[in-house]
Structures are given as C-alpha cells and as structure tokens.
C-alpha cells in the first residue's frame, strides 16, 4: 500500500488520499500527507490565557506540541463519547500540531476533480472549509488547516515584513499567474507580491482554471510575452498543483514557463514529488521572502 501510494502521488495523477474523521455529527477530511500518526488522547496541560482553539500542550517522543481542539474551532460541543476521541498528529508549514477530533473513520482515495469549491453563499469570509467531497451519498468537508493556525497565531502566516527587508525592486512589467484556493492566502500573497514590486498578477482558485487560461493565451500568442512565471499551491479542488505543473510541462507551448510550487506540503521527504512533475522551484509556506528571491531568479 505504501509503495502504491508513492507511485500515485509522484505521477501527478490529480488524486489524493484523505483521512476521514468526525467532529460532532459532521465528517471532515485531512490530506494523508499532512498526517504523521493517529494516537489515543493523553493528558494535555492547559496553558493560561492561550487561544480558545488551543486545548493545551503535550509531550510526544521528546517534543512539546500544541493540541488544537477542532470542536472549539468549529463551534461544536465536546464529544458525547469521549472514549472514541483521537489525536491526529500532523506536520505542515514546517510545524507539528496535534488536532483533537471525535472519531477517525477511514482513508479514502479520491480525485481533486470530485472536490467542489464552497460557494460564497455558505462559505463566508471566516469559513474554515476549502472543499466539499461528495462520497457514497454523503459529504465530507475539507478543512483549511493553514487558516486555523493563522487564526491562532498570525505570525505563523505570510509576513509582508520579510519582503520589505529585501528592498525596492522594479518588477511592474513582469506578469505572474498565481494559483491558490484559500481566499486568506490569496490576499496575503497579493499584498506581499505588490510590496515586492509585482503589480501585474492573475489569480486563480484552482489549477484547472489556471491551465485553461494559459492554454487559451498560448493559442493566440507566445505565452512568454504575456506570463513570465506561475506560482501554485498543491492542495486545490478540481486540479492540484502537481497535476497543473505536469500539464504545463507536457505542453510544448507552455513548457518554457517556470513553475514554482508554494505549499505547506513542501518537506525534504516530499520535495521529490514536485521535481518529478518538472517544477522549477519549491518553497514551503510561509517563507515568502524565499519565494520572492526564487521568482527573481527565474524571471530576470
């Protein structure tokens, strides 16, 4: 199973595996790549004056890790059957965090094409939901775990001050395509890229929309005259960043475009997946200064 999973994710097939869990009466999902292990709850030490989402801290194999109670995050009451509660130990954005959930069900393999983007009618500006999966007559909600951590600690997100330290530059004639499904991160990326001198930016919520745009542009003219570089997240409904990168590099009219993957899933263990699909660079969120320097390197 482990080898099969590696082949699946390395080939850029636009599929993923999720761990399905419940909080209250609703089912939610987290990308398997973010999950280190699932354990039974142990004693948690409360921290005075901590954020309401944070249940406390605990020690796991010599590391002191924060425990985030997802019932608190989502506004649900505590579990009525606490003996079934689980701790999901996760790692992303170069951080390890434990999420307290009410029950862990099973693992599903699905296509990003089957994940719908929440509409503005029910998502709302402060929603933690980034995708809706229709599965076996039920719905599984994908949570925006990056946003949850930024809500708890804003300093863990993209910081425009890092870009200001790089100094002024003239990049207004450079055109970028940025693909990011999170409204919060799109706004942060826009603010920081503008601060870095990039004013000509096309934003897309998923890889499919971005690819359609690039293919349309390439049909009329040399895309290099219009777009100099693509920045993409990995986890996105409809088409993920690995598959988008593969489709760009497999297209003779687009293959010249540098593609930089900017994702919370960039680790030394997973970096080879982006290399496999032809990414020109990979940066872990929230290292925005590193991203800007890499963009400069590929569009000079």
TrEMBL record:
PROSITE patterns recorded: CHEW (PS50851), RESPONSE_REGULATORY (PS50110)
Family annotation (SMART domains): CheW (SM00260), REC (SM00448)
Annotated ranges, domain CheW-like: 15-154
Residue ranges constituting the Response regulatory domain according to the UniProt record: 175-300
Tagged with keyword Membrane: no
Modified residues (4-aspartylphosphate): 233
Matches recorded under Pfam families: CheW, Response_reg
InterPro entries (alphabetical): Chemotax_regulator_CheV, CheW-like_dom_sf, CheW-lke_dom, CheY-like_superfamily, Sig_transdc_resp-reg_receiver
Gene3D superfamilies per record: 3.40.50.2300, CheA-289, Domain 4, SH3 Domains
Keywords: Phosphoprotein
Gene Ontology biological process terms in this record: chemotaxis; phosphorelay signal transduction system
Name of the molecule in the record: Chemotaxis protein CheV
Organism this protein belongs to: Niallia nealsonii
């Amino acid at each position: 199973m482990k080898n099969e999973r590696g082949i699946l994710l390395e080939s850029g097939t636009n599929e993923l595996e999720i761990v399905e869990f419940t909080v209250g009466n609703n089912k939610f999902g987290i990308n398997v790549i973010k999950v280190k292990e699932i354990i039974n709850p142990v004693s948690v030490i409360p921290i005075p004056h901590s954020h309401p989402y944070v249940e406390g801290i605990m020690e796991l194999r010599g590391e002191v890790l924060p425990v985030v109670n997802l019932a608190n995050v989502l506004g649900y009451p505590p579990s009525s059957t606490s003996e079934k509660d689980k701790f999901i130990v996760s790692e992303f954005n170069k951080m390890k965090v434990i999420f307290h959930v009410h029950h862990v069900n099973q693992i599903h393999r699905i296509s990003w094409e089957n994940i719908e983007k929440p509409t503005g009618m029910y998502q709302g500006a402060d929603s933690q939901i980034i995708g809706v999966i229709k599965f076996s007559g039920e719905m599984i909600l994908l949570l925006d775990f990056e946003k949850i951590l930024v809500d708890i600690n804003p300093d863990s997100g993209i910081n425009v001050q890092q870009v200001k330290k790089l100094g002024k530059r003239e990049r207004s004639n450079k055109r970028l395509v940025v693909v990011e499904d999170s409204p919060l991160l799109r706004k942060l990326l826009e603010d920081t890229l503008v601060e870095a001198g990039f004013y000509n930016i096309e934003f897309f919520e998923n890889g499919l929309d971005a690819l359609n745009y690039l293919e349309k542009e390439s049909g009329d003219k040399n895309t290099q005259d219009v777009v100099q570089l693509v920045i993409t997240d990995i986890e996105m409904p409809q088409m993920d960043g690995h598959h988008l990168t593969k489709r760009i590099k497999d297209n003779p009219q687009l293959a010249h475009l540098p593609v930089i993957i900017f994702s919370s899933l960039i680790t030394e263990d997973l970096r080879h997946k982006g290399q496999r699909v032809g990414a020109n660079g990979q940066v872990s969120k929230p290292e925005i200064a590193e991203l800007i320097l890499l963009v400069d390197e590929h569009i000079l």
